[in-house]
Specification:
It is built from ten helices and eleven strands. The C terminus is likely disordered. The radius of gyration is 22 Å and the shape is globular. By secondary structure, it is an alpha/beta fold. The protein has two domains: 119 residues, Periplasmic binding protein-like II (D-Maltodextrin-Binding Protein, domain 2, 3-Layer(aba) Sandwich), CATH 3.40.190.10; 103 residues, D-Maltodextrin-Binding Protein, domain 2 (3-Layer(aba) Sandwich). Strands 2-1-3-10-4-11 form a six-stranded mixed sheet.
């Protein structure tokens, strides 16, 4: 009680001003970005004073959350499809959209297993009991995986042996624990797993849609200026160095669409 009176007296005397809470920015991002984004967000917070609150999940899950009005300022997907759908519905601002990184798909097996499939075509072998991929309906890594399995000519023979993960990190976990014969994940996930898994094959990029990470400001955000500043930082040399250190390929430096990216906070919010 005494402390409260002292603070009140100081405020009235103009000798002490309460510290304002730091600005907060809510970012919903694909699970495969979590290691890189945590490092980038920590650096950005020191640089800007803005608190970045990160939420990770499959791109499809976060897309649904944006549709349902979740408090998301920035959405970073692991594919164009989810951002395209939200753009058609007017739920994201197309002028702010940019690709911040790229990735590759790899076939991984438990590191302790000696006899394992060494190619995507080899997955059709009867000795391959279960193969983990992301759920194609909501996980871009799963969508890419189905495309390359079709291209490899093994999709039909594998359908009853596929195990679906709710995000790519769950697929990685299945392989790490030896619960499946093999799994298809991003190269960055395999790198993050270290010696827990072994890369058996790298997918030909021509066998699936390009793996890209588009970032965009959500229309309902009341922190649009802050959101665009964060996107600018994601395209900076400092952020790209972190992404490349984690195994991602470089993204585009500029927004995909021409025109000014800054949109006044709250303007036209739905």
């Amino acid at each position: 009680m005494r402390t409260g009176w002292i603070l009140l007296t100081l405020c009235l005397a103009g000798l002490w001003t309460p510290q304002a809470s730091p600005e907060e920015l809510r970012v919903g991002a694909a699970s495969s970005l979590q290691d890189a984004l945590r490092a980038i967000a920590a650096s950005y917070e020191k640089h800007s004073g803005t608190k970045v609150l990160l939420h990770f999940g499959s791109s499809g899950q976060i897309m649904s959350q944006v549709r349902n009005g979740a408090p998301v300022d920035v959405f970073i997907s692991a594919a164009d499809r989810q951002v395209d759908e939200l753009e058609k519905e007017g739920l994201v601002l197309p002028k702010t959209r940019r690709v911040i990184a790229g990735n590759a798909l790899v076939l991984i097996v438990p590191s302790q297993v000696r006899e394992a499939p060494g190619s995507f075509e080899a997955l059709a072998s009867a000795g391959v009991k279960r193969v983990a991929i992301g759920e194609p309906k909501t996980v871009p890594a799963g969508q890419y995986a189905m495309q390359l399995l079709e291209k490899a000519g093994v999709a039909d023979s594998l359908r009853r042996r596929l195990v679906y993960g709710t995000n790519v990190r769950q697929v990685l976990g299945y392989v790490e624990r030896g619960e499946v014969t093999a799994g298809i994940v991003y190269a960055t996930d395999a790198k993050a797993a270290g010696d827990k898994v072994r890369v058996a094959a790298v997918a030909d990029a021509a066998w699936h849609d390009p793996v890209v990470y588009p970032a965009v400001v959500v229309t309902a955000s009341k922190r649009r200026d802050a959101s665009v500043r964060f996107l600018d930082y994601l395209s900076s040399d400092a952020a790209r160095a972190v992404l490349e250190e984690k195994g991602f390929t470089a993204g585009e430096a500029n927004a995909r669409d021409a025109g000014p990216a800054i949109v006044p906070d709250g303007a036209g919010a739905r």
